[in-house]
Amino acid sequence: MAKGMQELMQLRQKHVPPGPFNTTQAFIKEARGALMIDVEGREYIDIAGGIGVNNVGHSHPRVVEAIKKQADQFIHTCFHVAMYESYVTLAAKLNDLAPGDFAKMTMFANSGAEAVENAVKVARYATGRPAIICFDNAFHGRTLLTMSLTSKNMPYKKGFGPFAPEIYRMPYAYCYRCPFGLTYPKCQVACADYLEHFFINYVSAESTAAVIAEPIQGEGGFITPPPEYFPKLQKICDKYGIALIIDEVQSGAGRTGKFLAIEHAGIAPDIITMAKSLAGGMPLSAVTGRAELMGKPHVGGLGGTYSGNPLSCQAALAVLDVLFEDGLLKRAETLGQTVRARFDAMAEKYALIGEVRGLGPMLAMELVTDRETREPATQQAKDLVSRCFDKGLILLSCGNYGNVIRTLMPFVITDEQMEKAMAILEESLAEIDRG
Ligand SMILES: Cc1ncc(COP(=O)(O)O)c(C=O)c1O
Asked: Could you tell me if the CB of 275 is within 6 A of ligand 1?
């Protein structure tokens, strides 16, 4: 007999440590498209997407078929021992898709954190410099180096030090809570120019290998810089021979309606990291960058046993087909417009919503208890997520104060499902607003 939720929860509590967190109590039996069904038959609309991994939806038929076919042929050879076509074909496709009219190369790893680790290794090796500049509110992963690059103390860093050296952190373009107390556009995006000042006060440009930034900060609260921000950062990086690493782990693979979020800024980063939705749920991450940087580290300096696993590479090739051939990127754009209109309308009605922000369907609302003071409505956001779950909608909060509600819906979500998700969200908001 299949086990029920209660029994499974008891097993979980007894045998799995609490550190690997759970945002819901659900145990899932099946998931398709934007729907998940738990072991007791309860249905949920999923706009969390397994934390941004299911842009093409749960178990997309083309992805499943690609995995099955590959599993029938072989599961693992290790790219370093015996190569296979999907690895090199996928690398070539990502090199083409990444912006920039220059030669690029791609290597694969398994997780987002691993991609970031490798991007930093490449940048350090190629420049011969040690320092990495990262940002307030950044999230780059949970390994020692990426945790050190990550900003938020609790729960990511507390008690896990000492951290990796040669990491320097500067403020990000968080316009709603400007760290410089300025207002866009009058500020002229001074937060980007600040990088020059940073070199004087904190770490010299000559010892800086890379600046690493998310094009929209994901875990940090879907913080979306103004359009001038990245062109300015890139110009300064270029001036000093510093590699600009853009971490697209959460924002890539179509999340913002373009394949990469940085395309909205119109720049070509030196190195890009991708993961999450890239392989439709299979573990895969990629580092794509300028050939002259990526090609520098010596033979054997990069890699890993499972990196670029054949099942994951085939799944990613299927994801690219679905995004580009089946028109899912277009669908993402439409979804973005629909959801933004709904969020904007909710913001008119509920004072709890301080700001609606994002790009395409990578959208969020920051909740505040008071629009004047912008006091984060942390408890209300928690309450909102929990009420939505009780009504059959799974979504996630984010942000330093946990007061930002984000959407990471699969693009295959139907209009009816999306409408139902928005209705549940609004009903829950209204309940909290009434107190
Ligand atoms: C921008 C960004 N970088 C890196 C990571 C780490 O990815 P992973 O959890 O696959 O290691 C994440 C995960 O949320 C992320 O959002």
From this structure: yes
Residue 132's DSSP bridge partners are 167, 210
Q: What burial letters (b/e) apply to 155-175, b meaning 16+ CB within 10 Å?
A: ebeeeeeeebebbbbbebbbb
Give, to the nearest 10 degrees, the angle between helix 310-324 and helix 85-97.
Answer: 40
Query: Phi/psi of residue 135, each to 5°?
Result: -130, 155
Of the CA atoms within 13 Å of residue 172, those in its CB half-sphere come to: 27
- Strand, helix or coil at 379? helix
How far is 241 from 128, CA to CA, in rounded Å?
Answer: 11
CA of 422 to the centre of ligand 1 (A): 26
Peptide bond into 162 cis (omega under 30): yes
Residue range 121-147, pLDDT digits in tens:
999 999 999 999 999 999 999 999 999
Question: 186 C-alpha vs ligand 1 centroid, how far in Å?
Answer: 33
- If you take atom 4 of ligand 1, which residue's CA is the nearest one? 140
Residue 377 token pair: 């409505």
End-to-end CA distance of the chain: give it in Å, rounded: 43
Note whether 152 and 220 are within 8 A (CB): yes
Confirm or reject: Cβ of 49 under 6 Å from ligand 1. no
87 Cβ below 6 A of ligand 1: no
pTM, 2 dp: 0.98
pLDDT digits (tens, 9 = 90+) for 42-62: 999 999 999 999 999 999 999
Ligand 1 near 399 CB (within 6 A): no
